[in-house]
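Allow me, if you will, to draw on your knowledge of protein folds for a short while. The matter concerns a single protein, recorded as an amino acid sequence and a row of backbone structure tokens. Could you please explain, in whatever detail you think fit, how the structure tokens follow from the sequence? I remain grateful for any guidance, and I place the record below:

…
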Amino acid sequence: AKYPNGATKSAHLGGEVNISCQIPEEHKVHFCKEDDNHICQNISTSTVTEMNGSSERNEERVFTVSISNVSVRDAGVYWCGAETRDTHLTFISLNTKIQLNLISE
């Protein structure tokens, strides 16, 4: 598989965690967090810092989302993927699932 299906990350309370995902070059990144009803709530892309991937033909970009000052409510399941727009439709393909666990001292 070209995309990692999932990853588990651990973070300390008050610490910082980086979540990375790879999306095709021409697409917009979509990053969201699952709520209690298993609905993925969009997270403002202002928290997304873009890093260029070192792919051979530059077709993939690596996006890194940094969450600093991690709190209890940051724990949970995050998804990220690509967003493409057609004339009136937005298609979102979520290809990476990240489980964020908290390490309590």
Confidence is low (pLDDT under 50) at residues 51-55. The longest strand covers residues 90-103. The two ends are 36 Å apart (CA to CA).
